[in-house]
Amino acid sequence: MARDPKELEHLRMMTKVSHLYHTRGIVQTEIARTLGISQARVSRLLSAAEEANIVRTIVVPPVGLNADLEEGVEKMFGMREVHVVDASGETGEQRTETLGIALAGVFQVLPVGDKAIGFTSWSRSMRRFVENLTSFPHSSARTVIELLGGVGQPTIQHQATNATERLASLTDAEPLFLRVPGVVSTPEVREAILSNDPHARRALAAMDDLDIALVGIGNATIVPPLVGGENFFTQEQFDAVRAKGAVGEINLNFMDADGNPVPSELDDLVIGVSLEQLSRAERRIGVSGGADKHEALLAAVRGGWINVLVTDEESAQYLLEQGPAKR
């Protein structure tokens, strides 16, 4: 019988902490600092791991967990945290749900008090993450900032707004909405929109001081339910930037296979976070899975644009096979 996803995520955290403490010999205070949780939380997870018979004389990961795979990706790419889920045999939608649940478990233990949280509300995985999140009763974040303007049809934008509102409510934070088009037709239109919208200007300025960034990773193509031309790039525009070497994008900031930015005229058509702003965030959290995202995910990891990753086994293995960029 399959385990409940939330139970599996709790087991994942117990196993990860146990692996760091018993196998790698890292002290509890250092584990707490690395994972962004309290030392008391680390102690409770270690105790729970013993009760669950995960810790005997060695760390014994429950079926479906991947402590060695996670550590391999962390070490190879110098990442802060990697969390790998078993999504074998799942459809794309099921994988999105699995990754969202896993991210909720990771985020739930982060210290969010007085933090500025950037949120990619149009990402399906991110919306699933928020649906599975519970409240933070003992801490209040400062702000939840939408990292990209609206993309796609009105129904998608409505779902994105609801997700931002829910995340802000759960973290007791002020939501900063970016209720303008995510992609516009000309740089002049972008300038005109921002000159007349103080709320959008405030959201963009707040991105200079992000503490946590929850980003979207795309493969520089149109993925349903998004439609080209509806506050979004057309396939012809994606093809043009791919011809310049782009293999993927983070919040519509394009990257080549080694994670280097790929400048193009499309940059001036986006209303959202820049890679420079993103790079300042202490925790840059990406969630991505499936073969169609492999190249884009590798670029994001190689470029250091994310330092916390939630992904599936297949994608983690791909990262290990490809390795860092060859400088």
TrEMBL record:
Domain called Sugar-binding: residue spans = 66-321
Q: Keywords assigned by UniProt?
A: DNA-binding, Transcription, Transcription regulation
Named from the GO MF annotations, one term is: carbohydrate binding
Tell me if Transcription is a UniProt keyword of this record. yes
Give the InterPro entries listed for this entry.
Answer: NagB/RpiA_transferase-like (IPR037171), SorC_transcr_regulators (IPR051054), Sugar-bd_dom_put (IPR007324)
Q: Which domain of life is it from?
A: Bacteria
Keyword DNA-binding: yes or no? yes
The record's section on Pfam families has: Sugar-bind
Q: Which residues cross the membrane?
A: none
Family membership noted in the UniProt record: Belongs to the SorC transcriptional regulatory family.
Q: What is this protein called?
A: DNA-binding transcriptional regulator LsrR (DeoR family)
